[in-house]
């Protein structure tokens, strides 16, 4: 079994602020740092740090060499990362005194996927392999269709949620990993139990992990529902918390761990991540998580 993450690679420009800006407000930032990130990259590094060999497929633009470097430094296979002309995908992130953030995303090279590039990548994968997807790249619907034809296990983090997902056949998804907001956007329901019930009705063959912020997480499959609380820490930066959870939970599936143990592992890893600054830099290695 091979694991492919077909996803975004971003340069993150992180500004420390007293409070998240409101419309019309001007505020001096306390500092600016540049990190390597993107939901795709974060989740690939989380998988690699959790001990899972992972291939990352994606496009980088000008100045993206450091994205390649951070992948290689963290053990992510870069065979399917291609550099193209134009700007890299990037974000402008505000982080307030409580560690909360808001993110402005510019797609850049991440929105330049072609069907030919998708086909060239998927030619190297086969039935039973895992593909992890997020919604920060274009051609997502085509990738899902092609991966389904190849009988791969398709895992989707439907973030950020937008109209592009309407063209995707979500009945082909094996596992959803989403938060309450994305759960509401997919189902129209706000209560966690109602979200899970609606997902089961809409996509009866799919498993789902629903993250609930301070209320932990819940997993649903054909055998039932499993719940996990959080590990309380002082939040410094929540940027990569969800991506860390995603990578570690998927690693638990690959390692054959019981669901409850996988949820606990992912919760511990994400707690460590929020206690540190940055995106990829905040993701812990497996030995740190196991020792906690």
From TrEMBL:
Cofactor binding mode and count: Requires a divalent cation, most likely magnesium in vivo, as an electrophilic catalyst to aid phosphoryl group transfer. It is the chelate of the metal and the nucleotide that is the actual substrate.
Active site: 243
Pathway per the UniProt entry: Carbohydrate metabolism; D-ribose degradation; D-ribose 5-phosphate from beta-D-ribopyranose: step 2/2
Annotated residues for binding of ATP: 179, 211-216, 242-243
Stored Pfam families: PfkB
Domain (Carbohydrate kinase PfkB): residue spans on this chain: 3-284
Family in the record: Belongs to the carbohydrate kinase PfkB family. Ribokinase subfamily.
Gene3D superfamilies for this protein: 3.40.1190.20
This enzyme's EC code(s): 2.7.1.15
CDD domains on file: ribokinase (cd01174)
Modes of activity regulation: Activated by a monovalent cation that binds near, but not in, the active site. The most likely occupant of the site in vivo is potassium. Ion binding induces a conformational change that may alter substrate affinity.
Record keywords: ATP-binding, Carbohydrate metabolism, Cytoplasm, Kinase, Magnesium, Metal-binding, Nucleotide-binding, Potassium, Transferase
Statement: the UniProt record of this protein carries the keyword Coiled coil: no
Keyword DNA-binding: no
Binding site for substrate: 10-12, 38-42, 136, 243
Location relative to the cell: Cytoplasm
GO biological process: D-ribose catabolic process
Catalytic activity: D-ribose + ATP = D-ribose 5-phosphate + ADP + H(+)
Taxonomic lineage from the root: Bacteria, Bacillati, Bacillota, Clostridia, Lachnospirales
GO molecular function, one term: ATP binding
Function: Catalyzes the phosphorylation of ribose at O-5 in a reaction requiring ATP and magnesium. The resulting D-ribose-5-phosphate can then be used either for sythesis of nucleotides, histidine, and tryptophan, or as a component of the pentose phosphate pathway.
Residues given in the record as K(+) binding sites: 237, 239, 273, 276, 278, 282
Named cofactor requirement(s): Mg(2+)
The protein's assembly and partners: Homodimer.
Protein name: Ribokinase
GO cellular component, one term: cytoplasm
